[in-house]
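Hi F.,

I've been meaning to write this up properly since the lab meeting, where we talked about keeping a consistent format for the predictions we share between groups. The idea is simple: the sequence comes first, exactly as it goes in, then the structure tokens exactly as they come out, then a line or two of notes. No screenshots and no reformatting. I'm using this chain as the first example so we have something concrete to point to.
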Amino acid sequence: MAPRIGIIGGTGVYDPEIFEIKDKVVLSTPYGAPSDAVLVGEMKGVEVAFLSRHGSGHVYPPHRVNYRANIWAMKHLGVERIISPCAVGSLQERFRPGELVIVDQFIDFTKGRDYTFFDGAKTVHISTADPFCREMNALFASEAKRLGLAFHEGGTYMCIEGPRFSTRAESRMFRSFADIIGMTLAPECQLAREAEICYTSLATITDYDVWADEPVDTATVLRTMAESVDRVRQLITATIDKIPEARNDCECPHALKAAGA
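Output, unedited:
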């Protein structure tokens, strides 16, 4: 199989009734091992590669995920488009828990990750002015509207190092610049751009961050995510066979050329 669509997310995103696993691919990469074996199968007749971002049993915290190995593995398998479901907190009153955000911008506040494939003899300055695939974002927004889902078409994601949650002071500062907050978008998104892979982030809001005077705890996040995962699966299932094979309506396939690489 040669899957052109990849999903990087939690194991709850795929449903064995709609995702038929055909193969389990264990890869080594120049950057070490990916988070887990890649499950390759079919969803609505479309070949899909699924990778658990945090590994089986959620063994890798956000700051220990091998993002370079994960993206390299997807590229190696022939993936051209990545769908990335994730959980986030809300920094704004109007971004409510349980709603979905199709992210269109991010601010990277991480501190010690491997941010590029080009850290050796060759330096490439990739453009991330518009870091997400506009074609994929538009397609998922169209399907979310058709399905009547509560979602936001666009939103700025503040990515922090983790694994701790923000202090109240940090959360109040972040509110001035972003709409949602999480720990996994960077450098995953920019590495996908370096690999010339289209990338879209489907962020489920699990809570209001601590600016709202309600302490964030893991139990709340997991409970809300479990309640919302069916909607994410529904959106992915409804959209996946509508994603065109040709990539003619975005700049993602030519990112390195635009960077002078």
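Notes:
Residues 218-240 form the longest helix (23 residues).
The mean pLDDT is 93.

If this format works for you, I'll send the rest the same way.

G.
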